[in-house]
Amino acid sequence: xxxxxxxxxxxxxxxxxxxxxxxxxxxxxxxxxxxxxxxxxxxxxxxxxxxxxxxxxxxxxxxxxxxxxxxxxxxxxxxxxxxxxxxxxxxxxxxxxxxxxxxxxxxxxxxxxxxxxxxxxxxxxxxxxxxxxxxxxxxxxxxxxxxxxxxxxxxxxxxxxxxxxxxxxxxxxxxxxxxxxxxxxxxxxxxxxxxxxxxxx
Length: 201
Description:
alpha/beta
C-alpha cells in the first residue's frame, strides 16, 4: 500500500496558514487533518477533537513524559503537540495528513520525518501582518507586539531555507491555488507513482 504523505503547513501567526490548510482539506480527497493537543482554551467556533484536543497543562506534561508526541512546543504561553501515532497511521493507511503547526514544531518534525513536505505561509509585508493581527478581536496590543516580534524570527532567511515551499499569502486565491498545486504535484512525483504502480501489479 502507498504510504501517506505528511504535509506540514507553518508560518507566523496571522500569516494565513490555517485558512490555506482548511481550504486544502475541503478541496482535496485522501487528505485528513492531523489533530494536535493544546493547553490553550478553545476559540469561538473551535470543536474538541476536530480543531484541537484541549487538555490541561498537567495532562500535557504527563503525555510529554510518556513520549506521546513527535513534536511539542510552548507557543505564546500555551503548549502544543503532535501525537506520534498520527504519522504511524498515515504510513499504514495510505491517507495523506496535513499539519497546521508553528515553526518550532515543524523544525522538530523535519528531524524525525525529513521526507515530509514543508510549506511556509507568510504575508507580503510586516504592515499587512500587523493589520491582520489587529483585526483579531482575541489579540490585545501586547499580544500583537509579541506575535510580531516572533514573526521576525520565524521569517528569518535561515529558517525559510529549511522549507520546501514558501507561499506568499498576498492574494488569497493565488495562495489557495498554490497550496493545491503543491499537494497535487507531490502526489504525482515519479517515485510515488511508480511505487503505486508496482503494488498494483
